[in-house]
């Protein structure tokens, strides 16, 4: 006879019994957003994004930007010291080439430039008096940027190999680590900077351009990237805040791709950034030095920033000469045909 506690089992084999299958889930129905759609905008990564969240991101970038800038005297030092301007150019050129060879994201270059500028602005031009010092500092800044921004990074020696024939010196890993630590201490371990690239997608999204075709939005972002990359080479743009450089690139892109609506979008942009005069000044420089399809680094010399004097008699003299033409295509992602095919003289896509 079964124990009392099993009386209700009616002599079934209860251990072998299996529970009935759960009922099938109800058919999925399309969610309807009942909130006011004016508070949401479309992006390429998600269907709807809360505009309040984007405004918060913008305010966060603007706040961080103010505390991650080089020292005020740095702009004047670049203007008055061809040696320092040359050292900075050499570092930026190294960052750009290594990014392409190591397949890093473009944003890592902007982080590295920020670390280099902030470090040199605090330590002075004595930190880059020789080619060896410039190369060692460049490797350290780029390695730190990769550690902060990339999912995985190479060994320290790989950063030297990626520099190619432009590197005149070789360094031990211990030397690089010591400079990394020195950079971190000088920057007070503050690496999460806001750069012009940080605003790239944020600004174009905040303009609420959900009425534009997806192709045009992609082209606009690609054009902005094309415009802000050369600004890293030109010390003139160090005078402007990163948000101003990004907003100016967006303005140039709008005027090229969407001239009929650029004024209305520009008004919105000015309200977002609130640096109207600075954007106007930066716009003049960008139109002359970057947006012009004939732009090369030699044109920068005509504006008073002679990175490469015809007779470079300085402590950084080298038997090898830099080529003044820099192939910025190395820095632009190759996974978009739009980036390669855009022509500054044939960019009006709104009527296509």
From TrEMBL:
<dbReference type="InterPro" id="IPR013763">
    <property type="entry name" value="Cyclin-like_dom"/>
</dbReference>
<feature type="domain" description="Cyclin-like">
    <location>
        <begin position="93"/>
        <end position="185"/>
    </location>
</feature>
<dbReference type="GO" id="GO:0051301">
    <property type="term" value="P:cell division"/>
</dbReference>
<dbReference type="InterPro" id="IPR006671">
    <property type="entry name" value="Cyclin_N"/>
</dbReference>
<dbReference type="Pfam" id="PF02984">
    <property type="entry name" value="Cyclin_C"/>
</dbReference>
<keyword id="KW-0132">Cell division</keyword>
<protein>
    <recommendedName>
        <fullName>Cyclin-like domain-containing protein</fullName>
    </recommendedName>
</protein>
<dbReference type="InterPro" id="IPR039361">
    <property type="entry name" value="Cyclin"/>
</dbReference>
<keyword id="KW-0131">Cell cycle</keyword>
<keyword id="KW-0195">Cyclin</keyword>
<dbReference type="InterPro" id="IPR004367">
    <property type="entry name" value="Cyclin_C-dom"/>
</dbReference>
<comment type="similarity">
    <text>Belongs to the cyclin family.</text>
</comment>
<dbReference type="InterPro" id="IPR036915">
    <property type="entry name" value="Cyclin-like_sf"/>
</dbReference>
<dbReference type="Pfam" id="PF00134">
    <property type="entry name" value="Cyclin_N"/>
</dbReference>
């Amino acid at each position: 006879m079964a124990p009392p506690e099993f009386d209700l089992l009616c002599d079934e084999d209860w251990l072998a019994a299996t529970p009935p299958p759960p009922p099938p889930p109800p058919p999925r129905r399309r969610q309807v957003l009942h909130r006011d759609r004016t508070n949401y905008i479309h992006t390429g990564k998600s269907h709807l994004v809360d505009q309040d969240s984007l405004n918060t991101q913008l305010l966060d970038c603007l706040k961080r930007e103010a505390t991650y800038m080089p020292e005020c005297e740095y702009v004047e030092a670049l203007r008055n010291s061809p040696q320092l301007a040359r050292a900075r150019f050499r570092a930026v050129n190294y960052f750009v080439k290594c990014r392409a060879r190591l397949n890093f994201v473009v944003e890592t270059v902007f982080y590295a430039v920020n670390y280099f500028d902030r470090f040199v602005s605090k330590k002075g031009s004595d930190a880059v008096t020789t080619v060896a010092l410039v190369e060692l500092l460049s490797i350290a800044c780029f390695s730190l940027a990769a550690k902060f921004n990339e999912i995985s990074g190479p060994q320290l020696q790989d950063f030297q190999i990626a520099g190619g024939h432009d590197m005149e010196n070789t360094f031990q890993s211990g030397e690089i680590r010591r400079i990394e630590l020195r950079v971190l201490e000088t920057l007070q371990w503050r690496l999460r900077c806001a750069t012009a690239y940080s605003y790239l997608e944020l600004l174009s999204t905040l303009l609420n351009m959900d009425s534009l075709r997806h192709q045009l939005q992609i082209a606009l972002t690609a054009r902005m990237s094309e415009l802000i990359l050369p600004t890293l080479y030109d010390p003139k743009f160090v005078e402007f805040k990163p948000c101003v450089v990004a907003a100016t690139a967006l303005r140039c892109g709008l005027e090229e791709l969407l001239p009929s609506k650029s004024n209305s979008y520009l008004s919105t942009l000015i309200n977002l950034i609130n640096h109207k005069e600075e954007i106007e000044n930066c716009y003049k420089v960008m139109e002359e030095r970057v947006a012009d399809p004939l732009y090369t680094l030699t044109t920068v010399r005509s504006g008073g920033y002679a990175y490469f004097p015809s007779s470079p008699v300085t402590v950084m003299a080298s038997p090898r000469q830099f080529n003044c033409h820099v192939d910025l295509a190395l820095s632009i992602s190759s996974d978009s045909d739009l980036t390669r095919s855009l022509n500054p003289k044939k960019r009006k896509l709104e009527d296509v």
